[in-house]
Design a protein that fits this description.
CATH topology of the largest domain: Methylamine Dehydrogenase, Chain H
Helix content: under 10%
Pfam families: WD40 (PF00400)
Number of domains: 2
Strand content: over 45%
Subcellular location: Nucleus, Nuclear pore complex
Family: Belongs to the WD repeat SEC13 family.
Main location: nucleus
Order of helices and strands: EEEEEEEEEEEEEEEEEEEEEEEEE
Strand order of the largest sheet: 1-25-24-23-22
Protein name: Protein transport protein SEC13
Distance between the termini: 23 Å
Length: 321
């Protein structure tokens, strides 16, 4: 059993269900996304008494997911809404003031279900998933002077049909060689989840398109997937986890840089409850799984040397008074 200490709990003030929560890179600011169409920001440096920072109300419907950019890109937050808008928020110099840095209208693809910033080395690049099965990669194309006093920031959008039904999750591969140098989309890879399972994509710079990576023949037909998470590179093989119904599936690809090999099913864990969200730890190879309907909770999955996955319930540590 894994112990988790509850540092604090509080009322967010949202008027609807909370669909997503995300901490920034430093663990100091919490963003909450709600069915009421608002994103709220909280200073949790003192978690026992969080303080309200800002209310971002740019969506005309529920907000399904939020994502913080790498600090390499500045203080930026992206939000994906049921209204089909991708909004990028930036912090002003004055505390508590935020502005919309960019608004990408993707309503032609239906509601936006997921959003994820690329690793910082890729630059200001965002992937999002839409109801009609489209995945769109939006990237900052540069800043241009329009006159003596203003600067225009231009963004490029690259959509493609990734799934035969809806698309509901996206996850980026981490570069195998990490440093502070911007490398752009060269060698970029992305996984998506949707009505027809998991798909993996590689950026083809020569033809400016995202090409699908192959799966083993037995794994081409898959169950619908709710979520997908790309494990940080461990020096051995590329690994994905996906959530389908009450199961977590593990996918592996043993291949050189560039993704020349085929993806194969490498394991499956039946948890007996509906699985909703997945997240790998940065180190240690642990997979955090959010599951359950009547009483949502979390478990940790860790693979033993013999390939079997241990399931460790996460229990809140009781405080001693």
């Amino acid at each position: 059993m894994a112990q988790a200490k509850v540092l604090g709990d509080f009322d967010t003030g949202h008027c609807g269900a909370i669909h997503d929560t995300q901490l920034d890179c430093y663990g100091e600011c919490l963003a909450t996304a709600s069915a009421d169409g608002h994103v709220r920001l909280w200073d949790i440096r003192e978690p026992e008494k969080p303080s309200f920072m800002a209310d971002l109300g740019g969506h005309a419907g529920p907000v399904h997911q939020v994502s913080w950019a790498s600090p390499m890109q500045g203080v930026l937050l992206a939000s994906a809404g049921d209204d089909g808008l991708l909004l990028v928020w930036g912090r002003r110099f004055k505390p508590g003031e935020w502005l919309t840095v960019h608004s990408e209208d993707l309503r032609r693809h239906g509601a936006l279900r997921a959003v994820a910033w690329a690793p910082g080395e890729r630059g200001a690049v965002i992937a999002c998933a839409s109801d009609d099965g489209t995945v769109t990669v939006v990237s900052h194309a540069g800043a241009f002077d329009t006159d003596e006093e203003t600067v225009e920031h231009r963004w490029a959008s690259h959509p493609w049909k990734a799934h035969s039904g809806h698309a509901c999750a996206v996850s980026w591969a981490t570069p195998r060689c990490v440093d502070d140098t911007l490398i752009g989309l060269a060698g970029a890879r992305l996984a998506s989840a949707g009505a027809d399972g998991v798909r993996v994509w590689a950026w083809d710079a020569a033809n400016s398109r995202w090409d699908p990576e192959p799966f083993e023949a037995a794994d081409i037909r898959q169950k619908p997937a709710r979520d997908v998470a790309w494990k940080p590179w461990d020096g051995v093989c590329e690994t994905l986890a996906s959530a389908s119904g009450q199961e977590v599936a593990i996918w592996e690809q043993e291949a050189p840089e560039g993704g020349a090999g085929r993806w194969r099913a490498a394991g499956q864990v039946d948890l007996g409850e509906e699985v909703w969200k997945l997240s790998w730890t940065d180190i240690g190879g642990l997979l955090l799984v959010s599951l359950g309907e009547e009483e949502p909770h979390s478990v940790l999955l860790k693979r033993r040397l013999d390939g079997v996955w241990d399931v460790m319930p996460v229990e809140a540590e009781e405080e001693c008074n």
